[in-house]
Amino acid sequence: MSQRVVVIGAAGQVGVDLMDYLRGITPPGGSSKWSPAGTAANSASWTAVGITRAQLDLTVTDSIEGVLGGLRPDVVVNLAAYTAVDRAESEPATAQRINTVAVGELSRVCESLGAHFLTVSTDYVFDGRSAEPYDETALPHPQSVYGASKRDGELLCRPDDTIVRTSWVMGVRARNIAHIVAQRAASNEPVRFVTDQIGTPTMAADLALCVMALMERRPGGVVHVANTGVASWFDVASFVAMHEGRSADFVSPIVTADLDPQPAAARPAMSALAMRRWEELGYVATPHWHDAMSRLLEARRDA
Q1: For 91-117, what is the mean pLDDT?
Q2: Kind and range of the H or E element at 242?
Q3: Domains delineated in the chain
Q4: Which of 161, 249, 276, 281 could form a disulfide with 117 if both were Cys (CB 3.0 to 4.6 A apart)?
């Protein structure tokens, strides 16, 4: 007998890939050679209901109980978020309502329905002062309104809820740095990217498959999920440019202090994620971001 999963944010870059997997389809950019559990995901065990913002506006928290109550889910996956990092500095109330208040209400409603709640958080909960990648035991210390709103949402979750922290997510079916650099490479317009922001690039399709695996296990607590490997934004842009046939000097290195205008929100200088708990749960290591990015770029050409 299949279980019902409600995916909030089903039209987003991770949501569209997760909905594909739940229907038994490998999404564009997905891997046919890797799976978190070492065996193919079993889509037959799930009945998926995708929810978009038009169907559930998380700024209207009073509507959450009615929408979910009518669907009677076994699992709720929250992929919706306020992600405009710089704009959040001038819209803190909106960021908090979506990333904090709504997450707390989703957790409460899931408890009342007997459903497992899984929500996605961010590396921006960290301050970036660590010399090593952050594992799940590291204490959050956000430096921006966005990061604080996501941290506060985590704090409103129950111990049995699963919080997936991820970073630098890029999908085939969304506008992101991979697409921007590829487009600039096609028109031979050189770009500049920073060398002093370090993180773990994550492809949306791989993250979606990891979320599906965690839906099965329902471990509760915080689990870091990203592709393997650490990079700067300069490294990511250079990889994309060279993959698209440009020379090594197509991307110029700069530092954050040289950006003009300066971003409104502070970014952590080092927010790479260590997947200690993922390994403890016995899952297979995620693909290196080079492999994942190559899949994204090949799928982009085919789109």
Answers
A1: 98
A2: helix 233-243
A3: 3-175+202-227+271-288 (3.40.50.720)
A4: 161
Model confidence at 265: pLDDT above 90: yes
User: Per-residue DSSP letters for the chain?
Assistant: -PEEEEEETTTSHHHHHHHHHHTT-PPTT--SS--TTSS---GGGEEEEEE-TTT--TT-GGGHHHHHHHH--SEEEE------TTGGGT-HHHHHIIIIIHHHHHHHHHHHHT-EEEEEEEGGGS-S--SS-B-TTSPP---SHHHHHHHHHHHTS-TTSEEEEE-SEE-TTS--HHHHHHHHHHTT--EEEESS-EE--EEHHHHHHHHHHHHHH---EEEE---BS-EEHHHHHHHHHHHTT--GGGEEEE-GGG-SSPPSS---SB--B--HHHHHTTPPPPPBHHHHHHHHHHHHHH-
Helix 177-186, helix 233-243: angle, nearest 10: 40
Looking at residue 70, its pLDDT comes to 94
Question: What SS3 class is residue 201?
Answer: coil
* Whether the Cβ atoms of residue 25 and residue 48 lie closer than 8 Å to each other: no
CA nearest to 102, candidates 66, 58, 158? 58
pLDDT (mean) for 170-195: 97
Checking if the pLDDT of 202 tops 90, the result is yes
Q: Tell me the per-residue pLDDT of 219-242, one tens digit each, with 9 for 90 and over.
A: 999 999 999 999 999 999 999 999
Q: Looking only at Cα atoms, what is the longest distance across the chain?
A: 57
157 φ/ψ angles, rounded to the nearest 5 degrees: -80, 155
> One-letter amino acid identity for 148?
A
pTM above the 0.70 mark?
A: yes
What local confidence, expressed as pLDDT, does residue 158 receive?
Answer: 98
Alpha-carbon radius of gyration of the chain: 19
Dist. CA 297–CA 153, nearest whole Å = 33
